[in-house]
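Justification of computing resources. Each target in the renewal requires a structure prediction run like the one illustrated here; the chain below, 441 residues long, is used simply to show the kind of job we budget for.
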Amino acid sequence: MAQIFKAKKKPLQKQSVVLDITAMDHQGRGIAKHNNKVCFVSGALPNEQVKATIVDDKARYSSAVTQKVIKASESRVTPFCEHYNHCGGCQLQHLDARQQVVEKQAAVNQLFEKFAKQNNLNWQEPLLSKPTHYRRSARIAVMFDKAAKKMRVGYRASGSKNIVSINKCAILSEAFVDVFTLFDKIINQHKALHSISHLQLCQSDEQNFVVIRHTKAIPDEIKGLVEQTTANYKYNIVWQSETDVIDHSHTAMPFYYLDEFDLKFEFGLGNFIQVNAQVNQAMLKQAANWLNLNGDENILDLFCGIGNFSLVLAKQAKTVIGVEGVVSAVAMATQNAQTNSIDNTQFHCFDLTQKIEKAQWFTDNLNVLVLDPSRTGAMAVLEQLPLKQFKTILYVSCDPVTLARDSAIISQAGFELNKIGLMNMFPHTGHIETMALFQRR
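Resulting structure tokens:
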């Protein structure tokens, strides 16, 4: 067999450079010019001059990491977390919390100019979050550290698969303030617990769950010791074996309550819920206000999950059809409608990346479209829907790149971007959540 010669890629000669930062991208990195191309600089802020190390050099751009701030931004602050320089969970603690929102909005503006050819967006007041202890759910990694000869419990290091041991996490709910040190101690005391791969934390309105994912069977005696040790912390321990099934049938269903709408949402521990309860309530209120429904609307809610938007809007619309690709979420949405005595909704399980031409849930009387997709966006379904039959489209986005890309499709179908606003669901991180309202021209 003939062998094709491939030249070995030369290792990057890491070099230190002085860079002037002009802006920030949608991932929270500073933007500079180096060797006539864009350079993305982690840890740098607009209007700063930094000494940085080039860590990646592509044909069209390079990446760097800040080593020293030569000229600091007026918005630079001291990070409040002891693990900030190592943990990959937050990217923006060195930037004033108020300015984080300003820079995120500027990054979205840039993306709309690039992908949708739109500028002068009609920005609304952002939905803000309390700056710390806002996460009601999180995933904690557990891994054996060969060098330290111990199990580590924490988050992954920035740009690495290694685990950083965490003492306390200031963005996690205060209900879990002791979870890291407690489980670090427990897991390292019992070798039978070394098969634990991660912990999933979830705070519902009345219970605090810790789902323990393990890849090998753990003796009931050891499970009992874990549950006994954690009893004083009021953690509801749920064991998840290698079957991937989270069995919490022995405990009451977790739920959250929306005071604004008098709605109760039950969910399974494997279902997606918004991690920031405060912003979730504000987001739903804003959605209802922006849509300004009069009771005659037939709403199509795509990527509806457990009915977070569907049930809120069903109280103000004629009908709501919710579509979601996860079977368990559809089941919970249906159950939540029944629990709240809402009878003008239907929920369907359907893979929205597939062809919808034969989808039984689509009818020509639907006139309001709500989208809440994952980071991959909604392009696959937007390119198939007869968008012109809708009078209004509400797009809730967790990725500004796909939002800007999809906005171009919506605009070409005859819609105008009427309103747009940030939802600061994840303070101190590079994540950007946005809501956009489109009206048919």
